[in-house]
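Sat 14:20. Reprocessing the chain from the morning session after the first attempt stalled halfway. Input below, unchanged.
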Amino acid sequence: MSATDEIERVARLSHGRLVAILASRTGNVTAAMDALSDAVDRELEVWPVQGVPARPEGWLIATARHRAADAGRTAARAAAAAEALTLMEEERMDMGHAATPDRILNLMFVCAHPAIEARMRTPLMLQLVLGLDARRMAGAFLIAPGTLGQRLTRARAKIEAARIGFALPDGDELAPRLANVLDAVYAAFTVGIDGEGAGDAKSTSLAREALWLGSLIAAQMPEASEAQALFALMLYTQARRPARVDGSGCLIPLDEQDTSLWDARMMADADLALRLAAGAPTLGRYQIEAAIAAAHADRRHGHPTNWGAIAGLYRGLAALHPTTGALTGLAAALGEAGDPAAGLTVFDAADATHAAAYQPWWAVRAHLSALAGASGQAIACYDRAIALCPDPAARAFLERKKANLRSSCLADLPRDFSSTSD
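Finished this time. Tokens:
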């Protein structure tokens, strides 16, 4: 592996671990990020010349801490000596334990503290734990990059001003903060999966890092059913990736994929995680979404897709978590179950304000309109979906569907249409 590759690996995959280590002693996440940024700049200068150190993450920790100490060092020699001794001891410990799962989990719960504005908890976690910048996240949260950057700065300042402790919450505070943590992990996974399809080379590592975070939370909190369910959901999704695109680069719909290409071991791990989640008496969003993924995965056992059951699960999801995505999934399942009119009714009854830029909404509506015989409306919806689609494989699929529909419409015209229309 070249120095450039190793720099990218450490910067991408270790960002959250390093911020957690650096911030856990002082609680100052902004200073931790600044110190890490300085260390990465130094890394870019040194590693290509001197080679990659034996412990890259430990090297970054030590460099970042020395930079932070230089920035805030007082003139008192005794204080400086004490600081140096503390740094040496911490470096010795952290060089051998750079992964520090507990510290990462603590950092995520810090970002989910009630003192942080609710809508900023997920993007703050993505920035601190996974190193995403405002530009990369802006589209996912429908906020201009500059505005999001300013809000993230204020959120980091809030952590320090409120003196939020770097420890797991307990009692009644744990459940709501865990929900925010899980939402952030899933948002990161979704951004990674979507970006991977759109050809973003960094997105594969982002999706894998989110999956790693999901496994970490599930392992650290085995009684948390939603944590187990989210881990299962991500595993099901990741396991299907090898079968997603055909040889021509066109998307293959889920119910048409070659199940022999699915990752069998990952599917089995997903089944296990879902069984663990099902043991809880409560039912949450991720348990339902994982159950939907499991229903699709049942095809690997030779069973046809049970669209009626999937539609029922989506009804429960829409009642519990009425998002644009849940309603789109319900409409699609109803259409595939043989009732496209019912699916279109879901769209007509929903508030379309949040759907304007949501590509699956238009793609599913186009498909259902075509099934219902409204070809003109279907073509218009396909145009909208294609314009919103950043994924080349999905775009090729939508363009093929639109072309097939247009050809079908032309085939159904009377032979003398051209003469009678003059």
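The first helix runs from residue 3 to 13.
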